[in-house]
Give the backbone structure.
Amino acid sequence: MNLPNILSNFALMAIKMVHKDFLSALKVLCLAKQKYAKHNYEKLSKEFEHSQSPLFILGNGPSLKHQENKINENRHKVKLLTINQFYKADAFWRWKPEIHLLQANEYWSDNVSDKYQKLQKETIENLMKVTWKMYIFLPQLATKKNFIKEISQNPNLEIKFFNQVPVDGSEIINYYFWNKGLGTPRIHNTLVAAIYLSLMLKFKQIFLFGTDHDWHKHISLDNNRLRTSYKHAFWQSKNNTVEKLDGTDFLLHEQFKKLYLTFKGYHDLKILIQKKGAVVINTTQNSYIDAYTKDEKWNLTI
C-alpha cells in the first residue's frame, strides 16, 4: 500500500472516530440528567458502606441452580443484586437482595402490548410484597411512568435512576462519560447495566452467577417467525415468539444484532473495570461471556 492510500485510510478512520465521539457527546447533552450523575452514586455508596464487601450479581440462567448452596453459605458476607423477573424465585424472598435492577423498558414503558402489560402488572404485584429495604434501579427515562407511581407506594423500596444514555465513541470519551455517570455502554442486556452500576457503586469484587448466555442455542423459526425456548433457573419459558414493545415480531437479524451488542458491551466495560481497580469473576463455567475470568470454584477473599 502506497503512502497516499495509508494517509487516506488514516484520515477516514479519524473522521469516523471524531463522528462517533461527537454523536456520543450530543446524546449526553440532550438526554443525560445531571441529578442522576456521579454524585448520586457517591452518596449511595457511602450509605451502603460496602466498599470492602463483595457483590453477587444473580442472572436468571439455569446454571444458577448449581450454585444455590454456595450462595446460601456466603449470603451474610456479601451484597446481592438481582435483575428482571428474579422475584419469581423462592430464593428472592429468602435472600432478600439489597438491589434489584429493572433496566429493560418492557417493565416500565407506558405504551406496550398486552403481553408486556401483563408482565408489568405481575412485577408491580411482586414488588409491592417486598418487606425489606431494597434499592430499585431504573433508567432515567422511567422517571414519570405509571409503573413508578405504582411501586412508589411500597415504602420499603428506594427507587433510584441512572443515565442510560448510550455512549459508544473512543475509549477516552467512553470512560469520561461513563465514569461521570452521564452515560453507559450500549445496553442490550440487563447484566451489562448491572455490572456498570456495581462499578459506579464502588464494588471491587463482583461475582456473576447464572450467566449462561446461550440464547442462540434456543432460537428457531416457525413460518419465518422468530421463537425462543430459553430456560431460566427457576422457571421454564414456553416456546414464545420474540416481540417488541408494540407487539410486532423481532426479525432474526435484529435478534443477532442485539446479541452482538450484548457481548460487545462486556468487553467495552473492561476499561471501566480496570480504571476502578475492580475484579469481575464469572462463576458460570460454560457461559458464553468471554470477557471475564471464569472460576466455577471461586472463593471470597474477605
